[in-house]
Amino acid sequence: MKALQKTAPAFGVELRDVPAPDAPGDGEVIVAVGAACVCGSDMHIYEWTPGYGFMADAMPVTIGHEFAGRIASIGPGAGALCEGTLVAVRPSVVCGQCDACLRGDSDRCVPRRGIGVTRDGAFAAFVRVPAANCMAAPDDMAPEVVALAEPMTVSAEAVATGGVGPGHRVLVLGPGNIGQGIALFARAAGAALVVVAGKDDAPRLACLRAMGFDATVDVGGRTLAEALAPWLAEGKFDVVIEATGVPAIVQPALDVLEKRGVLVICGIHPRPASVDLTRLVRKQQQIRGSYRAPLSTWPRVLAFLRDNADAAQAMITHRLPLDRAIEGFELARSRVASKVVIVP
pTM of the entire structure? Predict the structure, then answer.
């Protein structure tokens, strides 16, 4: 079968002929991939930005970790899954043997491996995954919507980490898929105002407007505070959630944050950020990191996607076959696309 692989610690990926996965082992299933999304982490892998050197020992490795599909075959001990079941797949594979796993706290598993990062992923027709990582989705959902479950759990976790609640004024920095999901979950949490800011991001801001978010702004050649002036005239933000991965935005984000406000960082940054800690202390602000979501978040997110399928579909701007996947990466890289879905 064809598979999109990272073959060397340098720029780029390759579409290669590779063997299809063998029969699933104990506790495993083979998933026939219905849809796989290109995400920000995939772009870091593609461009080989700092922070992904740990992948080198796994190369060549098939990438792709935001995906959904149907169970094609089932190994022994795979539980109650049935062939043909539509599933979302959690990409984080825990070891089951470390102290954290043995005490039932697998979210703290250190030697975990990532599907599509350090073990073969879903930019291929078939992928072998642990049955425990599969979450059944309603059969009538579109696979491309189910494939959004993984990034949407990241968005849901960021909103929960920020403690967003009724009446809050929320600023989302970064209008990509994670930022779009953050806006959706912040609105669902009862935020009184959700502003989304980007830079040279007209196509992705247009997606947000299609999702019902009118308070969008392209920073362009202005400072963040200048771009946000219409909203800052009514007060600063209670919660700012950063999903850009741009270190230079961290201090400006704190500058537009209310006293005792919370800044959530969920972007992956290639280098350290500079922060005025004295100002942070005097304003009693908090900076919190947010990354992957616990298992308990997934059913809630799948239910949210089922109930908000139209908004989820609005995130997707391009659908391409696997043999045009690199074209999809370039569309995402140039920010012409909002969300690219690869359909093997």
Answer: 0.92
